[in-house]
Amino acid sequence: MNVKITGRHIHVSEPLKLYASEKLQRLERHNDLLTDVDVVMTLEGEQRQVELIGHVKVGGPLVAKANHDDMYAAVDLVLEKFDRQLNRHKEKVKQEHHHDGAGRLGQELQNAATAAEQHGSEEEEVS
């Protein structure tokens, strides 16, 4: 997973980059789904905003934004939001790609067992 941290109207200090990078390690468990993550930190007046854009293998990019007076707190908030989005996206992809092949096999086995029982009861009646 490639991570890019940039600042808009703000210089992103090394401690802040390090903090964000460490927090982004939580997303490594979704490495099978995520390809790139862009973090954009913005200062507009007194408000600090962190935007996290995650590029996934299936579907369009996922975007989460959080505002706070403290940039570190905004990083925490945006990661919570993004983690929830990513989990929802992962479940959605899993449901879309779910194949009920095992269900059909189970149904065929059940039909075969029923047919065998019926065939067995017919033989008993004939005897």
Which structural category do the helix and sheet elements fall into? alpha+beta
Number of domains: 1
- Average pLDDT reading: 85
Q: Strand portion, in percent?
A: 25-35%
CATH superfamily: Ribosome hibernation promotion factor-like
* Tally of helical segments: 3
Supply the CATH class. Alpha Beta
Along the chain, the helix and strand elements come as EHEEEHH
Kindly report the CATH topology: Double Stranded RNA Binding Domain
Rg: 26 Å
Instruction: Count all strands and give the number.
Output: 4
General form:
rod-shaped
Helicity range of the residues? Answer: 40-55%
Structure description:
The protein is an alpha+beta fold and 127 residues long. It has 3 helices and 4 strands, in the order βαβββαα. The chain has one domain (2-96): Double Stranded RNA Binding Domain (2-Layer Sandwich). A 4-stranded mixed β-sheet has the order 1-2-3-4, covered by helices on one side. β1, α1 (14-24) and β2 form a beta-alpha-beta unit. α1 (14-24) packs parallel to α2 (71-96). The mean pLDDT is 85.
Topology:
Elements: E1 2-8, H1 14-24, E2 34-44, E3 47-56, E4 62-68, H2 71-96, H3 101-126
Parallel strand pairs: 1-2
Antiparallel strand pairs: 2-3, 3-4
Helix pairs in contact: 1-2
Jot down its keywords.
4-stranded mixed sheet, alpha+beta, 4 strands, about 30% strand, Double Stranded RNA Binding Domain, about 130 residues, about 50% helix
Task: Give a short synopsis of this structure.
By secondary structure, this protein is an alpha+beta fold. It is built from 3 helices and 4 strands, in the order E-H-E-E-E-H-H.
